[in-house]
Amino acid sequence: MALNTQPNLHEPGKRHFRAFSPGDDFYEALIATHRDLTDEQSAMVNARLILLLANHIGDISVLREAMQIAREGA
Amino acid sequence: MLSTFQYPKFDYVRPPEIAEARDGHYPVVIVGAGPVGLTAAIDLAQQGQRVLLLDNDDTVSIGSRGVCYAKRTLEVLDRLGCAEEMVQKGVSWNVGRTFFREEEVFNFNLCPEPDHHRPGMINLQQYYLEDDLIKRARLLPNLEIRFRNNVIGVTPDAEKATLRVETPDGAYTLSADWLIVADGARSPIRTMLGLDIDGKIFMDRFLIADVVMKAEFPTERWFWFDPPFHRNQSVLLHRQADNVFRIDFQLGWNVDPEEEKKPENVIPRIKAMLGDDREFELEWVSVYTFQCRRMNRFNHGRVLFVGDAAHQVSPFGARGANSGIQDTDNLVWKLKLVMDGKAPATLLDTYSDERCYAADENIMNSTRSTDFITPKSAVSKTFRNAVLGLAEQFPFARALVNSGRLSVPSFLADSRLNTADSDVFAGNMIPGAPMDDAPVAMADGTQWLLGAAGNCFQLLHYIPDAGALDAASAQALRSLIDAPIPVEAIVVAERGTAPAGLKTLIDAKGRVRERYDLREGTSYLVRPDQHVAARWRALDLAQVRAAVARATCNA
Ligand SMILES: Cc1cc2nc3c(=O)[nH]c(=O)nc-3n(C[C@H](O)[C@H](O)[C@H](O)COP(=O)(O)OP(=O)(O)OC[C@H]3O[C@@H](n4cnc5c(N)ncnc54)[C@H](O)[C@@H]3O)c2cc1C
């Protein structure tokens, strides 16, 4: 499977009437996860988050593709 | 400054209460002739209600404030008979472009779906909006506007509200069975009544400049994150009527607004953006801060709050006047039913419930935009810049870029006025949905579904050939009008003409059928404010009557 770069966010049981809503729901939750943390704590949260999500995705070829794109923009 | 617009000066007329030294009494008084008070007044007067509108000023909104009026606002104003002038005068746009540093990262189209009457948004200076509303208001004989009438005291009781009003000729007293408060964000009346409004202030300042220039910029919304000409901040450019361009510069919190407003400080900012060679004239400059907050409830007995008096949002997403006008769209038919004794006063609680829900959605969306545009922490800024960096190449990231989600109406899916579906439907036109528009053809020349909908309860009944409607169904549909709360039946069809006494609406392009998932027999009950109240796969008069009762708190 290739890395999916199309909008793909959704929430089971929740009906979205506007295309922007699921992405905005996610982004708000993401920023809220970091609320009141120091920069160091935030870096740790991000690392943990990536590890959790990587395991969930499972397919290492997808992860390699994502890691490469991510590194290009550093 | 301000060479393109001549501010009208409205005459003050000595009120009869002063001339005749007596107190006045009115069924409904509205305080505040801003966009929201004016739409409330026009809507009520159009419904046959005598209205008195008081304003402490004698002209329209001064300087640069509201710019963008959304499709839904135009649809409401169409119902009030005054959108066409605004659309003609204003600048219609659908495309927005987003820039990050030196590059354009992507653009979007607000209205990708064809076959809607009104564009996603028009840009028009707020003074034009108000001027057009006042012109419309003046055509209504049962609507009286009193300029330079300043409300200085309000005493509500169980049956009425008593007002003390100051004029150039002294003060007078009047009472009103119902008082609509549309006196703006600072709402003196809210303060007089000691009512709270909760929320938060954003620690940021924005410089707005109206600039007149002949520029070949297309009619699009341009938004810059961290541009080379205004590092680390955002900039927004909009074209308005008369070649007036509105520019918003984010300034941050630690600046002196008085210094920033000086032309010698503003002009270099604009030159850095437009280049040294571009000729322009500065029409207006101001610095604003903003807050997101709302009252706990919008109805307090005989006193009903609408617009900025009831709720405020950050300007990202243009939800101020747009949402205030939707307040009045929701309130007026309910208030009229209550005043006419056809619905209990609890119907007004649903005004508060539905519009508080909408206000929360507006506040949520504009807060999200604000947090994206002005990140509050280092990690938040890193995420923001990562999204912008990915957006050029990857569609998923474009969907996350949030430079303002433009005003769209709420789906009142949880409203207690809805009758829940008992049949299965595809699409978004669920009970509580704001109706989708579509091109239609009617004998009276109406060309849009939303031009045929509104002002009263209606039942849209679909059959492919209107001429094939059987006598019993025709009789049932006609009978809906004979009720304390009449329901106007409209036969939606591909072809043919409905039997006498029924309106036919031809679904010119098949969009009504598509958007509302119509099949033979499908019937939609819609509210006077063009929201779906109930729908069925077959016509059943008892169900329609029950749904009307439910939608009016008469159940
Ligand atoms: C920079 C900026 C940009 C904006 N951009 C947009 C936009 O793009 N789209 C949008 O929809 N909205 C926008 N808004 C918001 C919009 O301007 C307001 O939401 C809108 O004006 C609210 O209308 P209103 O009728 O509730 O109140 P107001 O327009 O504030 O009107 C209140 C009226 O009440 C009168 N009044 C007050 N007190 C009394 C009293 N005691 N007695 C009698 N009369 C009284 C005032 O004179 C005034 O005429 C913007 C606002 C700002 C500041």
Name the features.
heterodimer, A: 74 residues, mainly alpha, 0% strand, globular, B: 555 residues, alpha+beta, FAD/NAD(P)-binding domain, Glutaredoxin, eight-stranded mixed beta sheet, seven-stranded mixed beta sheet, 16 helices, 29% helix, 26% strand, binds flavin-adenine dinucleotide
Description of the structure:
- The complex is a heterodimer of chains A (74) and B (555).
- With 74 residues, chain A is mainly alpha-helical.
- Chain A has a domain at 38-74.
- Chain A contains three helices and no strands.
- Chain B is an alpha+beta fold and 555 residues long.
- Among the domains of chain B are: 24-89 and 122-197 and 293-366, 3-Layer(bba) Sandwich (FAD/NAD(P)-binding domain); 441-551, Glutaredoxin.
- Helix content of chain B is 29%, strand content 26%.
- The model of chain B has no long low-confidence stretch (mean pLDDT 95).
- The chains are: A mainly alpha (74), B alpha+beta (555).
- Chains A and B meet through helix 1 and helix 2 of A and helix 10, helix 11 and helix 12 of B.
- The structure holds flavin-adenine dinucleotide (FAD).
- The site of flavin-adenine dinucleotide has 34 residues of chain B, from helix 2, strand 9 and helix 9.
- Flavin-adenine dinucleotide is lined by residues 31-37, 54-57, 61, 65-68, 126, 150-151, 182-184, 188, 208, 288, 307-309, 315, 318, 320-322, 324 of chain B.
- Chain B: InterPro entries: FAD-bd, FAD/NAD-bd_sf, RIFMO-like.
CATH superfamily of the domain at 24-89 and 122-197 and 293-366 in chain B: FAD/NAD(P)-binding domain
Structural class of chain B: alpha+beta
Largest sheet of chain A: none
Distance between the termini of chain A: 25 Å
Estimated structural class of chain A: mainly alpha
Would you tell me the overall average pLDDT of chain B?
Answer: 95
- The CATH class of the domain at 24-89 and 122-197 and 293-366 in chain B, by name, is Alpha Beta
Give the DSSP E fraction of chain B (strand runs of 2 or more residues). 25-35%
Keywords (chain B): FAD, Flavoprotein
Cofactor (chain B): FAD
Protein name (chain B): FAD-dependent oxidoreductase
InterPro entries (chain B): FAD-bd, FAD/NAD-bd_sf, RIFMO-like
